[in-house]
Amino acid sequence: MNADLLGFEQSVLRKMNGFIYRCKADEHFTMLAMTAGIERIFGYPVDDLVGNKVRSYMSITHKDDIAHVEKTVNDCLAKRADFDMDYRLVAADGREIWVHEAGGGIFDDNGTLLYLEGAVTDINAFYSRNQQRMAELARVADKATDVLELLRYLKLLALNAGIEAARAGEAGASFGVLAQEMRKLAYQSEELTKSIAA
Q1: Alpha-carbon Rg for the chain in angstroms
Q2: Per-residue pLDDT of the chain (198 residues; tens, 9 = 90+)
Q3: How far apart are CA 193 and CA 29, in angstroms?
């Protein structure tokens, strides 16, 4: 391989916010090879994981996400499709880090599965921002519910004002028109607020 190309690959891998790997398709996802990003980001030396020397890859996968990872990989392998999934890894210091994995199976000419390979990227910062946005949207939805309550009250007031204007006859005609416009505005505002809440 060209030395410049090799230098380019190493440079890119050092900058990657994650790691690439090749592993067995066994219950532990036994690592055959992986890049140094696993240590730089997650705190585990490569040698600890390759061949399950100290720990297996599945042992650092969040226990609540193991079934999801196994099902996704198995379903995709059955269809000879690449997998694409998000789950959590538990770093050496105990932090739960959301990752995105894109990978797939490598098969020989006879269709026998040889191993899996792919890339795992740290998406924790993105996931945290997403959670904050969801919390902000939830707050907006709560405020929208408050506005809907106020609009229901305004519709009731407009209805009562229309009844009183009708009782007043000609003297209340202009007030009746105002009450009707208030009611129309309240209905329009309610529909807009409902769409924002949705």
Answers
A1: 30
A2: 554 545 656 666 666 788 999 999 999 999 999 998 999 989 999 999 999 999 999 999 999 999 999 999 999 999 999 999 999 999 999 999 999 999 999 999 999 999 999 999 998 766 666 666 766 666 666 666 666 666 676 666 666 666 766 676 666 566 666 666 666 766 666 666 666 666
A3: 50
Give the predicted TM-score (pTM) of the model. 0.63
Q: Compute the distance between CA of residue 128 and CA of residue 166 in angstroms, rounded to an integer.
A: 57
Concatenated DSSP letters of 58-87: GGGB-TTTHHHHHHHHHHHHHTT--EEEEE
Instruction: Dump strand ranges (E) for 62-162.
Output: 83-90, 96-107, 113-122
